[in-house]
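Researcher: Next entry: DNA topoisomerase III (Orrella marina).
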Amino acid sequence: MATATKTARKPNAAFMKPLTPSPTLAAVIGPEAVPRTEVTKKIWEYIKKHDLQDPSNRRNINADDKLKPLFGKDQVSMFELTKIVSGHLS
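Model: Predicted structure:
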């Protein structure tokens, strides 16, 4: 009977590749190139620091003056966030 060896999971190289934020995104997270995972982390740090989650529905994020140009509207759901941010990375 063969036993399967369990190997440590390697991170996907595409997620770890540093990407340059657009000027609009850089206003929120800074201008340095960072991996996609860090971009998401920094945006959530900003959202929590400025208390931008909608109190009545925590899945929604209210845009402040820095986020409104990024989102293009006053409020987005957390599920839209990744798609919006992807358009601002190169």
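Model: Note for the record: Residues 61 and 76 are 5 Å apart (CA to CA).
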